[in-house]
Structure formats: structure tokens, C-alpha cells
Amino acid sequence: MADYSLFTKVNGDSFTGVLIYVDDIIITGNNLEEIEHLKSFLLKQFRIKDLGDLKYFLGIEFSRSKKGLFLSQRKYALDILHDAGLTGARPEKCPMEQNVKLQTTDGAILNDPTRYRRLVGKLIYLTVTRPNIVFAVQNLSQFMHQPRKPHMEAALRVLRFIKGTPGQGLFFPAINNLELKAYCDSNHACCPTTRRSTTGYCVFLGHSLVSWKSKKQPTVARSSAEAEYRAMANTCLEITWLRYIL
Fold first, then answer.
1. E-assigned strands of 51-168?
2. Where are the domains of the chain?
3. pTM of the complete model beyond 0.85
4. Which of 20, 58, 114, 210 has minimal Cβ neighbours within 10 Å of its Cβ?
């Protein structure tokens, strides 16, 4: 009930999981016979095509070894750089300048806002495997209605940061524990326009990073302590949801 696209089957020590996104399906488990039985059943009911071991899914690349599973969006990142004409740009060491505060009234309005919107939309999907750009992309997504020149320059800086490590992603080790650990923080009154704070958290399952978020808080916090408690409350909600799945 916690995730309507995830289906599980437990039969003794056997576990099978099915993850569905529209007409794309991932099947996993610890019993190959159960997996083959499920695939043959689905083949009788629907017209499906078995693509074999998981290598590419919704723009995400998967590499498997004895040490674990590695997820990245290298091809997707390189495509974004190619579309923006930054394949030969000098890489940046961080996605956003320190203490930069973008505002809705700074700089000249872009003549063609669709380029900015399309770029930020692509960066949002890139955060699926790149938690290190989440805060910067969260900032950029606040100016979609009327992007200006400083906003575009900040977005291009994120691309130059990605240029340095286009194949960076997430690694899930094969040997792991199922202990949930979470870390949260807040940036008190960081928005110069609304004075609202930003919540940030990340959740680990053992040594694997499984959930993260950077989002502006819905109301103005009257103290840094209040902002921290709001961040902690949102993190607890995420932990509760993950526990339901587990």
C-alpha cells in the first residue's frame, strides 16, 4: 500500500519484486525459478518482451559486479551537455557559487524562456542519480515562470560541474545491512524574497543512499530552531514511508 507501482511476493524464503512504470517492468528476487515462473505467466496474459539482465531503464544505466550495483545517467548527462553546447567547457568544482542568492528581479529577462525551462527540466530528472546537484536544481526551478540572465548563468554552471564527472552515480554494495539512517538540515530564511527556509535530508539503507530531498519550506520559520524541527519532521515522514515499504 505504500507504493502502488511496487508488487511483492513472499513464499517461504523466496522473495520476488516487480516494479512497474507505465509499460516498463523490472523483476528481481532471490529465486530464479520463481522469476522464470512469473515471466512465463505474464507472457501468457500479455504481449511482453524479455530484455534480459537489467542494463538500461528509463535513462538510467546499471552496471553489476560481485561488489554490487552501480547506477548512473552518463549518456543522459552527456546528451544534456551536447544540447547546451558545453561538451568542451571547463569543468566547475561545485554546482553553485557559495552564498549566492538568486532573486526574481535580478538581471535581464531572457528572450526565449523555453530553453531555460527545458534545461532545468532535464536537470531535475538527472537528480535521480545525482544527489549532489539537488540543492542547486531546487533553486533554479523556482524561476521557471520568468527566468533571467543570472538564472541561466547559474544553470550553465551546474552543467559545467556535471562536465567534470558525467558518469557519477550511486553504488549499492552487495554486502549490506538493513539499518535505516537519516540526516537532515535546514537553511534558515535563505530565500531573500519570501524569507522561507530550505529543508534538506538524505536517508541511507545500510551504506546505500536511497532517498534525498531539498525543498523550500511551506511557511516562514520564526527561528532557526523552528526551521530545524520542520526539516526533522519531514525526514521522519520519509523514514516512516520507507519502513512501510520494508
1. 56-57, 60-65, 68-72
2. 6-52, 72-164, 176-245
3. yes
4. 114
| Single-letter residue type at 4 | Y
H-run or E-run covering 6: strand 6-11
- For 174, the grid coordinates are 552487495
Question: How many Å apart are CA 198 and CA 91, to the nearest integer?
Answer: 27
Q: Which residues of the chain have pLDDT under 70?
A: none
Q: How far is CA 209 from CA 19, 43, 178, 228, 246, in A?
A: 19, 34, 12, 21, 15
Q: What type of residue sits at position 148? A: R
Q: Locate cell 515499504: which residue?
A: 245
Q: Which three three-digit cell numbers place residue 154?
A: 547559474
pLDDT reported for residue 4: 92
How far is Cα 229 from Cα 41, in angstroms, rounded to an integer? Answer: 49
Q: Which of 168, 165, 166, 143 is nearest to 153 (CA)?
A: 143
Q: How many CB atoms lie within 10 A of CB 7?
A: 14
Q: At what angle do helices 74-84 and 149-164 cross, to 10 degrees?
A: 140
> What type of residue is 231?
A
Predicted pLDDT at 139:
94
pLDDT reported for residue 1: 83
Backbone angles phi, psi at 76, to 5 degrees: -65, -45
The answer to whether 135 and 198 have CB atoms below 8 angstroms apart is yes
Q: Which residue has the cell 534558515?
A: 188
